[in-house]
Specification:
Blueprint: E1 2-8, H1 12-22, H2 29-35, H3 38-50, E2 61-70, H4 71-77, E3 83-87, H5 105-108, H6 111-133, H7 138-141, E4 150-158, H8 159-169, H9 176-192, H10 203-207, H11 222-230
Antiparallel strand pairs: 1-2, 2-4, 3-4
Helix pairs in contact: 1-2, 1-3, 8-9
The chain binds flavin-adenine dinucleotide (FAD).
Length: 232
Amino acid sequence: MKIKLLRYTADAELLCGTAALTSTKTGSPSEILEKMNMETAKRIIKHVTGYGHVSVIEHASFTFSIEGVSRAMTHQLVRHRIASFTQQSQRYVTYDTLEKYVTPPSITNNAEAKKIFGETLEKISETYQKLLKLGIKKEDARFILPNAAKTNIIVTMNARELRHFFNLRCCTRSQWEIREVAIEMLKQAKKTAPALFENAGPSCVELGYCPEGKIKPPECNVEEIKKRFRSM
Ligand SMILES: Cc1cc2nc3c(=O)[nH]c(=O)nc-3n(C[C@H](O)[C@H](O)[C@H](O)COP(=O)(O)OP(=O)(O)OC[C@H]3O[C@@H](n4cnc5c(N)ncnc54)[C@H](O)[C@@H]3O)c2cc1C
């Protein structure tokens, strides 16, 4: 997979700092922005979001290209409703080679599983091609394609939604592929706007405990996870 932060709001932290001060200052947003500096922005964002007024960070948007992932992954991704998506269409793009599929590591690492997985995908590819040759439209031939089918998607989220997405999808309870995507998105967003993504990561990084309760995976060590994500 390839994840690339394509575009983001210019001066995202200065802008969100301006939004945070707009509610309590007499000056206009444009006057506040003119005087805003990074140190004040970071301090005010931390202060205001710290007591729950997280809407101020909705003014910063981040657009990612997510490439070569499975349809199983994007089906989960698009459940996040406070985001904008555009996905490669199986009505227009032909799936013609085996490289168009994602193989989970658990299958790659198991010789017998890898063999039957590969054979099945080969059969699916052949049938798909035969359907096209029979004059079946791509939009109908695609009914044979599996969750493993590779796809590309572009997604835009504001910083508040991104933080929520990271809470859910950087978590060990999340499925491996969307977790890999979320962690890479977090790394790139945090590099760009560290003040907006301080303490971002699975919920336990912010809360200090696991909200999953009894279903918390036994391998999870909250202190280690906090350390890992805070140093990202
Ligand atoms: C580990 C894990 C397992 C999952 N398993 C399943 C499963 O088995 N089956 C399944 O169907 N889904 C499953 N999901 C998906 C999950 O139920 C959510 O649909 C998905 O995580 C999106 O979360 P969200 O609704 O909080 O986020 P978003 O859609 O991004 O929304 C962000 C926030 O906006 C608010 N919001 C958005 N829309 C509304 C609304 N209509 N009304 C009120 N408030 C709203 C809520 O506060 C919400 O948290 C799973 C998710 C995870 C992380």
